[in-house]
Amino acid sequence: MILDLIRKRRSVFPAQYNDKPIAKADIEKVLEAANWAPNHKKTEPWRFKVMTGETKEKLGLFLSLKYMENVADPKQMKAKKLIENPKMAGAIIAICMQRDPKESLPEWEEIAATSMAVQNMWLCCTEMGIGSYWSSPPLVKFMDEFFEMEPGEKCLGFFYMGHFDGELPEGTREPIEDKVVWAD
Ligand SMILES: Cc1cc2nc3c(=O)[nH]c(=O)nc-3n(C[C@H](O)[C@H](O)[C@H](O)COP(=O)(O)O)c2cc1C
After folding, report:
1. Can you give the CATH number for the domain in which 53 is found?
2. Ligand 1 pocket test: which of 46, 78, 135, 170 has the largest number of ligand atoms within 8 Å of its C-beta?
3. Does 181 map to a domain?
4. Mean pLDDT, 10 residues at a time, over the chain (184 residues)?
5. What is the pLDDT of residue 101?
6. Which of the ends of the chain has fewer CB neighbours closer than 10 A, N or C?
7. Are 82 and 60 spatial neighbours (Cβ–Cβ below 8 Å)?
8. Is residue 24 situated within a structural domain?
9. Would residue 183 count as lying in a domain?
10. Ligand 1 pocket, 133 CB below 6 A?
11. What pLDDT sits at residue 122?
12. Is residue 67 part of a domain?
């Protein structure tokens, strides 16, 4: 039942990942799932940059450098974490959004469609037993210096993936009744 999978989906963070590599075929499956997200006017605005191997380490060094250069009172601990987290991941997929050049849609619709693609990825990972989460550090605004981006393309964060050991905790949510008005 899809509801069980939806409820089972959790954010699984780099500290929880083990060393088992992510198979390329699994990354391809996740990307294929992303590609079936709904989108308005067929703009298919999601764009992804898949980072594995050395590129993950380079990403960590880049983010740490940008943090040190741009934050008023940088903390050594945070800078170290920015280097360590990407190393722990099996793969990191930069989540990008390509605004339709004709701007036929408001930007939020393109971000919404990209977010739906991410949910597809996250659920696909859940089913495959791969840990994942969406990381959205403010440092993403510098990502056009890390890889080539098209005009109108924006980085919205990183989709971290990693195998993990053990069980995940159940999630918690406030009741849906508190968020719904029925108009009969
Ligand atoms: C758009 C978006 C951005 C997020 N950014 C971060 C982030 O930067 N750091 C983080 O720890 N979690 C981030 N998360 C994950 C949330 O913390 C997580 O989904 C929430 O705590 C609920 O936990 P669950 O995913 O296990 O249900 C993000 C989630 C979304 C949807």
Report:
1. 3.40.109.10
2. 135
3. no
4. 97 98 98 98 97 98 98 96 98 97 94 99 98 98 98 98 96 98 97
5. 87
6. C
7. yes
8. yes
9. no
10. yes
11. 99
12. yes
List strands edge to edge, sheet with 46-51.
46-51, 91-98, 153-162, 131-135
Task: Calculate how far, in angstroms, residue 23's C-alpha sits from the geometric centre of ligand 1.
Answer: 24
Residue nearest to atom 30 of ligand 1 (CA): 134
The Cα–Cα gap between 169 and 16 comes to 12
pLDDT at 71: 94
pTM for the model: 0.98
Give the total number of structural domains in the chain.
Answer: 1
Taking CA atoms only, the protein residue closest to ligand 1 atom 10 is 135
| 160 Cβ below 6 A of ligand 1 | no
Q: Strand runs (DSSP E) across 7-115, as ranges?
A: 46-51, 91-98
Expressed as residue numbers, the domain containing 31 is 16-163
Determine which residue's CA is closest to atom 23 belonging to ligand 1.
Answer: 11
